[in-house]
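>> received
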Amino acid sequence: MDNRPIGVFDSGVGGLSIWRAIRKLLPDESMDFLADSGHVPYGEKSTAELQDLTARITRFLLGSDAKIIVVACNTATVHSIGHLRETFPDVPFVGVVPVVKTLSKHTRTGTIAVLSTPATSSSAYLAGLIQEFAPDKEVVNVGCDGLENMVEAGEVRTRATTALLERHLAPVKASDADVVGLGCTHYPFLRHQIKHLLGPGVRVYDPSRPVARRTRQVLEERDALARNPHPAFRFYTTGDAALFNEVATKLLRRPVTDAHHVEI
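>> returned
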């Protein structure tokens, strides 16, 4: 048993989709969540910049006694998790990547679609996943500029967001894709709209639950699951704390009022 908190971080509020899934699967766990909103979006940063930022965030969360670090961001996982594991060899890390293997397994038409940030969409890592797990599939790879920022602003049910979704989903709708993977942790907060726009013939796969299951597995292997009758949840942001509280409350549909601004 280990009652220390799980550390979770993202470039912004998108990682709260992972936080929500872990909270549901592991209700006895305390969690510290850091939104690096002062440096969002990560998709515009170099690998070196991302490795530096994520290492500093990891040191902050370890300073709060985190027992495991969940990198709740596709872009940070792709560019930084290997570096983090080398830099902190005694710390367990769980990352999040596009669910290409799952899509390839479940498609019936032979066409899959991945929605991600432009950085993830064009990354060698995603290209490698497609080559490894979907070499015989038609892949609709959509880099969705602007969607992450909409969720960051808490605009998940606005006309502007719907219009942006319609533009990004156009190539998916024009294809034979019957499965779609959400390759950014911000996108699960748009899952309802995406499903509605694509229709009942397309299944949408959300990475948050597999990440939560992997987190549970790693903690079980280390005999480090918690038994907290009253788990604690602390929120930090490198951006505006009041704005984080407002957006997090909207996204999680539960009051978040005590986020702290931090410098990393």
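>> The beta strands are 6-10, 31-35, 68-71, 93-94, 111-116, 138-143, 179-182, 203-205, 233-237, 260-261.
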